[in-house]
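ARCHIVE RECORD
Type: protein–small molecule complex
Small molecule: thymidine-5'-diphosphate
Source of inputs: curated submission
Record status: active
Notes field left blank by submitter.
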Amino acid sequence: MKILVTGGAGFIGGNFVHYMLKEHKDYDILCVDKLTYAGNMETLAPVMDNPHFKFVRADIADRDAIFKIFEEEKPDIVVNFAAESHVDRSIEDPGIFLKTNILGTQVMMDACRQYGIERYHQVSTDEVYGDLPLDRPDLFFTEETPIHTSSPYSASKASADLLVQAYHRTFGLPVTISRCSNNYGPYHFPEKLIPLMIANALNDKPLPVYGKGENVRDWLYVEDHCRAIDLIIHKGSVGEVYNIGGHNEMANIDIVKIICKELGKPESLITYVTDRKGHDMRYAIDPTKIHNELGWLPETMFKDGIKKTIQWYLDNRQWWENIINGEYREYYKKMYEGR
Ligand code: NAD
Ligand code: TYD
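STRUCTURE (tokenized, with ligand):
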């Protein structure tokens, strides 16, 4: 069995590569990644010598390069993680989100049609459902919730999902889609809430909370997400969408306070800054379908997962310091200075 994983030098894709090589020792994993600012070969360093692992640098929107890879490698299953993934960047510059997230998905599926495939799995997000109000804790996203996007990022992911469903209906491509809530864990790029707050707190820098910090996200430990995708590609029904979520809703400000407490840093580091444009209020997944059909449940409680995550950032300082001392510095200045 050969699995082509796109975006495997990123956060979730990288964790998925590690997870699959550990869980399926006889599988070959082929990682295809463009190595954008978010791709990091350090994340893959522990598996580069594994004979069941291979890395190819390519852009999923580059038709010639992708078709050549399929021609040579003939993968059995494709899991498409590759994407531009940061909402704030999509507000600054939507174009690349449309190219990678929509056209890249089309190229990957065209290659699957041309060369044949057992399964094409699209890694999507709960953000395609838009947001829920804070005063309706009884509401959750189900797979039937209408698509209703807010940011250029979520609009591009939703567009890709529609295209994936169209390729299934029109061409009979054997697809599945998963829509997951916010992940956290090792190898998370420090532009996202949890790793940014850990890195800043460790450096005694201000902790920039958008608006009032009351926005709610449903946090899932990344390994639980990887296990869900492993189940879906092996046992999920073709043509279906599966929501994945941790039943772990938390307001941003509470997350930041927990990080301060765990690191022994003062809450006075917290700085309220100008809110994100179009900021979604609340995400909350109903994971009943994947639980009933595939027996999936999250295994890592947030109180344990956040400790493991913080410990990873303490043990792997070089990994994130290399990032924050590189070109990321310019991004940080642009996004946060004087905000
Ligand atoms: P990430 O930004 O950490 O990693 C993205 C990876 O894709 C990087 O390695 C990057 O180099 C690569 N990439 C970007 N453009 C590419 C292109 N054109 N061709 C090839 N590779 C390219 O993202 P992530 O947080 O790991 O997210 C992975 C996927 O999961 C995305 O599709 C995202 O929409 C989805 N998702 C993320 C979350 C989350 O909480 N992070 C939650 C739900 C779904
Ligand atoms: P983020 O990690 O960017 O994920 P997403 O927007 O995809 O959910 O942000 C999570 C939440 O944290 C979101 O409500 C925005 C907020 N946030 C801050 O308050 N400060 C920050 O510096 C960042 C990056 C995010």
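CURATOR ANNOTATION: The chain has a mean pLDDT of 97.
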